[in-house]
Amino acid sequence: MKPSSIRKRKRLRKQKIASILRNVPETLAVDLLTLTVCSSYVASLANNLRIRRYLAKYHFQELNEIDRLLAQIKRIYCAREPQERKYSRFRIYSERE
Fold first, then answer.
1. What is the Cα–Cα distance from 54 to 32, expressed in whole angstroms?
2. Which of 6, 57, 81, 87 has its CA 20 to 30 A from that of 14?
3. Helices and strands in the chain, H and E counts
């Protein structure tokens, strides 16, 4: 490869990184914390047997949607390294059976 081509690639890469960093929302940490707290609360409600029975009886579609969202959040959460999730209390009801 020509040196000018390499310099051009490096410049483009730096521009792309700068563009990505400019587009990161300023409230990302707050949003992540809010999502974590809310999803943990919803998971605790979904793990409550009485609440789960009521939702299954009267709001079955909503319960399925809640389970789907919690599973998706768990998949993202569990992608972190094992030592980070070592003390996690985030569970989905079906795992306790």
1. 30
2. 81
3. 4, 0
Maximal CA-CA distance, the chain: 69
pTM exceeding the 0.70 threshold for the entire prediction? no
C-alpha span between 76 and 61 (Å, rounded)? 23
Q: Looking at the chain, how many residues does it have? A: 97
Q: Could you report the per-residue pLDDT of 49-88, keeping only the tens digit for each?
A: 999 999 999 999 999 999 999 999 888 877 765 555 554 5
> 60-77 and 28-47 helices cross at what angle (nearest 10)?
130
Task: Count how many domains the chain has.
Answer: 1
Domain span at 67: 26-96
Intra-chain end-to-end CA distance of the chain, in Å:
59
Which residue is listed with tokens 């079955």? Answer: 60
Domain-located, residue 45: yes
70 vs 9: CA distance, rounded Å: 41
